[in-house]
Request: fold
Amino acid sequence: MQDRDAEFGEFLDSRAAIMRRTAYLLCGGDWHRAEDLVQTTLTKIYVAWPRIRRDGSVDAYSRKIMVRAAIDESRRAYRRRESVVGDLPEIPTASGTGVEDSVDVQRALAQLPAGQRAVVVLRYWEDLSVTETAQALGKSEGTIKSQASKGLAALRRLLTDDKARAEES
Amino acid sequence: MNDDSDIKELLGRALEDEPPMRIDRGEVFRQGRKRLRRRRMLEAGGVVAGVMVIAVGAITLTGPRHDDLPAADQPEPAPTLLVTPETTALPSVAPPPVPTEQQALDMTVALTEFLPEEMALEPMPGSDDAGFRATDGVYQLAADVVGPEAEGSLHIAVAPAKIDDQTDCVVFAEDYQECQLVGTETEPVAVATEEFDNGEQRYVVFVARSDGTTVNAVITNLSERQRVAGEWPSMEAPMLSQTAFAQLAMLSGLTYYY
Reply:
């Protein structure tokens, strides 16, 4: 147990911050949800630690757990939100400064469907290949290519729309 | 943002207001150890969940408590079930009727009508039947359930109740992480949950109904097709909620005594 705790503790300390950033993007920009997601993922990693460490699959396992939990959580959150309010909450939009850019990207990410967002994050933030992304999400490579293409197009469109609105106002 | 190489930089912009880390390191260890203890209890109990195995606890899906039958006459266990019949059953008051194919068909229809429209029953790999089968003293179903975004598997056994059968969480012993009684006070249903390292989650129900029927069922978020293909669950939880699964166990169409 001591070995497990020591090794896992080392992993936690070195990876938690990185995992939280990925989780934040997967959640569409919510640090609190991102931390919950990482905490849940780390707990599951702790249980499976000897096996996944032996297999050398710690990172792959943690991605799988986290991304699937994020997608499921997003779907549940969507259903809850859908039953309370009709539309997504409005976030003030403006462009030009770093903070405002950050808000724009968060806003655009949050509007992508959870599965599409996960593909974009894994492919372009985590730098996974199409094959690795497909394995992480349990989808075909064709689906990943299609979702990545649609996700990028949607991101571009949403950011362009935001910028146009900001210029108009 | 004119090509894909800009995307990483763009995503990085969303992280510019990163707050200090608030993940509770101690809580991760506490929760991890708690889950690990449960896992070890499961293993120590001799009910080990392997890749192809579903642990059902003391109540089996393959003809529970037919201890009075000669070994050769006992129903063959389903290939995906590890069963651990531990109880010493008392004989029922009167011999139950022999299951019929017609009633098995009626049960399949009742189940299909109960399931949400988007959930379809499909044969498991190696099987050509996704409906109930009439076997020795029990109606059994083992099928994959497939929806637009998720898959899972479903096992149901409908059998005549023995006189010592009662609905409680004791039947699940310590092998399950959670168990609760749902439904009404007079007709409760025991619902238990189990999670595995590969993301598989199972709900198990058991009810000894007042109409003389016991229903024992397992639904998972991992279909047999996915299990055989080495895939992971595509959803965190099974396709039916625990409440809906408990309602399934109380379906009037799943009644042993016609």
User: Anything to note?
Assistant: The CA atoms of residues 25 and 41 of chain A lie 15 Å apart. The radius of gyration of chain A is 18 Å. Chain A touches chain B through 46 residues (CB under 8 Å).
